Amino acid sequence: MAYRRTERVQEQLQDKRDRILQAVRAVVAEVGFRGAQVAMVAEAAEVATGTVYRHFPSKGELFAEALALNAGHEVEVVAAVAKSDGPAAARLADALRVFAVRAVRARRLAYAMIAEPAEPEVDAARLVYRRAFADVFETLIEDGIKNGEFPAQNARAAASCVMGALNEALIGPLAPESRPQKGDAPTTKALVDAIVAFCLQAVAARPYPRPLLRSVESTP
Amino acid sequence: MAYRRTERVQEQLQDKRDRILQAVRAVVAEVGFRGAQVAMVAEAAEVATGTVYRHFPSKGELFAEALALNAGHEVEVVAAVAKSDGPAAARLADALRVFAVRAVRARRLAYAMIAEPAEPEVDAARLVYRRAFADVFETLIEDGIKNGEFPAQNARAAASCVMGALNEALIGPLAPESRPQKGDAPTTKALVDAIVAFCLQAVAARPYPRPLLRSVESTP
DNA sequence: ACAAGAACTGAACCGAGGTTCATTCCATGG
DNA sequence: CCATGGAATGAACCTCGGTTCAGTTCTTGT
User: Fold this and answer.
1) Is A64 near chain B, with CB under 8 Å?
2) pLDDT tens, B75-101?
3) Nucleotide nearest to A55 (CA to C1')
């Protein structure tokens, strides 16, 4: 017999795999999920189309892994801020800001990561990373509750709401049609400030007196 | 010459068009956008596939119109609650509740309307209806600010945040894999309560004292 | 009853793009 | 330097589902 997967080859394999994942990132940042096709990714990675399938079972899984990789990194960055020291409120504000700033800086990619339609596997991966972000926020909120900064509340739900508010409010500026334009930065800054204010008050303010609720009607 | 589009025929045409739109709704409520194909819709509408194209130029536009129709209805219902009388806070709470209750009642459909990947035209239609919902909330918030119930704030951004918080927090229970189960209703109720509490505090609470903010780091 | 012209039908068509695979290239150990 | 077998290649293939259109059915006015 001859040929045994040597160390060097193993590394080259790994490198190629990584290159492909990075290529997905680059292509998606350029044309979004909708426009990203396997052949393009292969080209960007300087690899033949078939080679992609040597490393990943399908387009869906490839893209999902690429998204997970990228999202994981973002989660780490945000989590680092969230776990720094200082009052929970300040940490929450900073975490939101970091998320927003980084998203706006990489518009197209962020839009794809957050909102763009894609294969089911990618969607599943999105759910996972959203959960991961929400977990970061949840921990932060629980911290705040424990040390008396925040009133008692459903931390899990609040974390989802924070995540949602952040995403939704950012989609406008991130959407592919809204190109960066003169006077864009200040607008974005104002928006981020508004988001931060919104979330902080939601989480940190004293409970609003239970309003009298009317019956909830509905028609099919 | 003979044959002139008579009144009766005109109505039949209209009826058929409506039937097709309703069929889209039914099919999407069943299998979501992903699984919905034109042939299915035609069958559900008791019409031949080709007939669909007599009334709509393409699948994308058909589906987009169906979504717009449905969403428009929901917006009306929520807007009605939002425009009723009473304190703005109570109206906001009720509006959120109505939205949530109706969404949970029609899980699959709501999920498709809110979050499921679909053709670009459908996405565009989604943006429009999101804007419409946000507008309803925005008006409500401005009302509250005017009459002194709510502190001054960026109503537009706050409305987006409310919309996002609502959507995101609901996606969990709405997601196709999470089937309704024993003990589901109370959980859902608790979740809706949490969402309402979150949004009300965000919008209605006194401004949170500006926290000291640290610098915002980032790594590429 | 019949001609004229719509509207309907649904099987066939077609394009796009993900996937495959026969062939070529290259690393390994003897 | 050669035999062995994994890795890479990329053009051909295949599938799926939206779209078309030639033939049929139905309506209308004479």
Assistant:
1) no
2) 999 999 999 999 999 999 999 999 999
3) D7
Q: Strand D closer than 7 Å to the CB of B58? A: yes
Residue B205 near chain A (CB below 8 Å)? yes
With CB atoms and an 8 Å threshold, state whether A94 touches B216. yes
With a cut of 80, say whether residue B211 has pLDDT above it.
no
Whether the model clears a pTM of 0.70, i.e. scores above it, the answer is yes
CATH class in words for B60-204: mainly alpha
DSSP sequence for chain B: ------HHHHHHHHHHHHHHHHHHHHHHHHHHHHH--HHHHHHHTTS-HHHHHHH-S-HHHHHHHHHHHHHHHHHHHHHHHHHSSS-HHHHHHHHHHHHHHHHHHTHHHHHHHHT----HHHHHHHHHHHHHHHHHHHHHHHHHHHTTSS-S--HHHHHHHHHHHHHHHHHHHHSTTS---TTHHHHHHHHHHHHHHHHHHHHHSPPPPPPP--------
Per-residue pLDDT, averaged over A107-127, amounts to: 91
Q: What is the mean pLDDT of residues B11-33?
A: 95
| Average pLDDT score over chain A | 89
Selected residue of A121, A129, A160 to mutate for chain B interface (largest B Cβ count, 10 A)? A160
Architecture of domain A59-204: Orthogonal Bundle (1.10)
Contact with chain A for residue B175, Cβ under 8 A: yes
Class of A7-56 per CATH? mainly alpha
How does pLDDT run across B117-150, given as a tens digit for each residue?
898 899 999 989 999 999 999 999 999 999 999 9
| pLDDT at res. B213 | 43
Q: Name the residue ranges covered by the structural domains of chain A.
A: 7-56, 59-204
